[in-house]
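User: My notes are a mess, but here's the protein and zinc ion's SMILES. Can you give me a structure?
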Amino acid sequence: MAKGMKRSIGIDAKPPEKKCEDENCPWHGRLSLRGKVFTGTVRSAKSHNTAIVEWGFNKFIKKYERYERRKSRVTAHNPPCIHARENELVMIAECRPLTATKRFVVVARLGKGEIEIRGEDKKLIADARKAAAEKEKEEAK
Ligand SMILES: [Zn+2]
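Assistant: No problem, the inputs look usable. Here's the predicted complex:
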C-alpha cells in the first residue's frame, strides 16, 4: 500500500483525522498489530512520540474473597497523527517491540477521561483486610 495511505488496522477504532509519515504508525506506516487491546489514561506524553498509559483493573484476591483494584502502566508509541496528550483516554494495541520498553501503540484518542483507583475502592480493600483479620482472631480463640 502506498505510503501515507490510511489502511484498516483490524481493530474497531476511529481513524485519526491527520496523516503522518511515521513508519511505526498503525494507520499510515507499516506497523502491524497483534495481541491485546487496552483502554487507559495517558499519564505522561513528555518523551518524543511516546505516551505512558495507565489503567485500572480488578484482581480477585482469594484470601479475602474480594476484588482488589490494581493498575497497570505501559509505555506506548504515540504516532504524530494521533498525538495523545496527558490525561486523555486512549485505546492502545499490542505490537512488536519498538524500543526496549515499547510494545504498544496508541491507536485512537477517546477524549478526556480517567481510569484509575478511586478512594472508595481502597476503603473496600481495607475493610476486606480488617474483616479477614477479625475472622482470624475469632478462629484463634
Ligand atoms: Zn499516522
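The first strand starts at residue 33 and ends at 44.
User: Great, I'll file this with my notes.
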